């Protein structure tokens, strides 16, 4: 949140109380399965996670990728059972807290509650972009857009990241996020390389021509251009 607003000390302390406990997860560990009790929420302190659903034919559809600072499990505040599965994509540290902690935050710090609403809307619009891409854009555009999104989210969590970043995803995972097979993902990555937009080496991706990749992917960074003038004052 501090990337978008100047937090007061009281707000910093309130957010810190949500992170008093922590839990370490290995890659592949499931934090919460669909239909599990949704009594807890989480703050992701370290690592990368994903949220997914299993479709009727057994296929997995990845809905979101999560990065340090993200609040996880918010969809479960509406239901007794979690509607989605949350899984670690790397070694992660998460901070669990009770739903009542969110209730207290909303009551005592309305600006923080408003920022949670802001991030929820960013996530919703990003999912809308993904849905439109699945139905109307090429496979190359879907893969290119995902690479840009991953780079930008990693960069937001670590200012030292430039145009090169550790991908941290298998081609199957990229496919489950973009509606493609792993073979098709591999073909699109090679095509992006051949066209000089990216380079790959040792599990890392380098964005070589961001302007061309952005245009080819129809990508819009939904974390930029925010209008936050309406937010209440911090307490």
TrEMBL record:
Segments forming domain HTH crp-type: 137-211
UniProt keyword DNA-binding, yes or no: yes
Keywords: DNA-binding, Transcription, Transcription regulation
Residues of the Cyclic nucleotide-binding domain: 18-85
Originating species: Sphingomonas qomolangmaensis
InterPro entries, sorted: cNMP-bd_dom, cNMP-bd_dom_sf, Env_Response_Regulators, HTH_CRP, RmlC-like_jellyroll, WH-like_DNA-bd_sf, WH_DNA-bd_sf
Pfam family, one: cNMP_binding
CDD domains from the UniProt entry: CAP_ED
Protein name: Crp/Fnr family transcriptional regulator
């Amino acid at each position: 949140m501090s990337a978008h607003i100047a937090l007061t000390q009281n707000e910093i302390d309130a957010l810190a109380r949500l992170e008093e406990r922590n839990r370490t997860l290995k890659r592949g560990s499931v934090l919460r399965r669909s239909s599990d009790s949704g009594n807890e929420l989480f703050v992701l302190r370290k690592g990368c996670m994903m949220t997914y659903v299993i479709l009727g034919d057994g296929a997995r559809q990845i809905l979101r990728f999560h990065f340090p600072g993200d609040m996880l499990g918010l969809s479960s505040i509406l239901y007794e059972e979690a509607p989605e599965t949350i899984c670690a994509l790397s070694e992660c540290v998460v901070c669990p807290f009770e739903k009542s902690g969110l209730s207290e935050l909303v009551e005592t710090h309305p600006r923080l509650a408003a920022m949670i609403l802001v991030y929820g809307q960013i996530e919703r619009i990003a999912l809308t972009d993904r849905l439109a891409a699945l139905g109307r854009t090429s496979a190359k555009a879907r893969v290119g857009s995902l690479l840009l999104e991953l780079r930008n989210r990693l960069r937001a969590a670590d200012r030292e990241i430039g145009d090169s970043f550790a991908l941290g995803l298998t081609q199957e995972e990229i496919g489950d996020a973009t509606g493609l097979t792993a073979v098709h993902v591999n073909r699109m990555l090679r095509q992006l390389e051949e066209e000089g937009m990216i380079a790959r080496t040792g599990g890392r991706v380098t964005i070589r021509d961001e302007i061309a990749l952005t245009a080819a992917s129809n990508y819009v960074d939904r974390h930029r251009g925010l209008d936050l003038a309406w937010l209440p004052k911090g307490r």
